Amino acid sequence: MHYFLAIPMHFILTRLILSCLLMFSVVAAAEKNTLQSINIEITSHLGDQQQFQQNDVLSFLLSLDKDAYVYVIYEDALQQLVQIIPNNIQQSHFYKAGFFISVPAENSAFQFIVQPPFGKETLWVFATDSASVTLAGQFQPAGLKRLKADIKSIRKQIKQQSKQIWGEAFFSLVTGDGS
Question: CA angle, corner 46, sides to 168 and 97, nearest 5?
């Protein structure tokens, strides 16, 4: 004896379409989460020395292995964040791979001078293929922007706006009064 189960054609088509849409959305999400990495190297003008004293003038050197837009953020000892690049004066933030980037630039309107409060500080560098990341904050007199968000939120925002490439690096240092 043979049994034949009659299933309406619209039911089969609906299931097929939903299955295809689900497969497409999973593939699209996987493609969005598969960003190529950008390697970033950071050092200070004194090498990898991580202890700096009051009134030391700091500068950093960055290097990328892929062309990218760079976002440089300084976190002071109180965890306050300042966007260094891009800024109101130096708005260009696209850099070619293989070249050293000096932060601050030689013609910059600001300098990093070690001043209180002292403690652990960090230079964060994010590299991406997105030129249009706008971080919320308020511009300061030297063209730098004091940021409102924390570093985790900033990382997430920049990474989400990246299309194909993304990188992150940081340089930690300790500042003190010299005693």
Answer: 40
Domains identified in the chain, total number: 1
Query: Is there a contact between 50 and 174 (Cβ–Cβ < 8 Å)?
Result: yes
22 pLDDT exceeds 50?
no
Q: What are phi and psi of 29, to 5 degrees?
A: -65, -40
23 in a structural domain: no
Mean pLDDT for the stretch of residues 54-63: 93
Q: What residues does 82 pair with on adjacent strands?
A: 74, 146
CATH number for the domain spanning 81: value is 2.60.40.2550
State the residue for tokens 């300098």: 111
Contact 40, 62 (CB under 8 A): yes
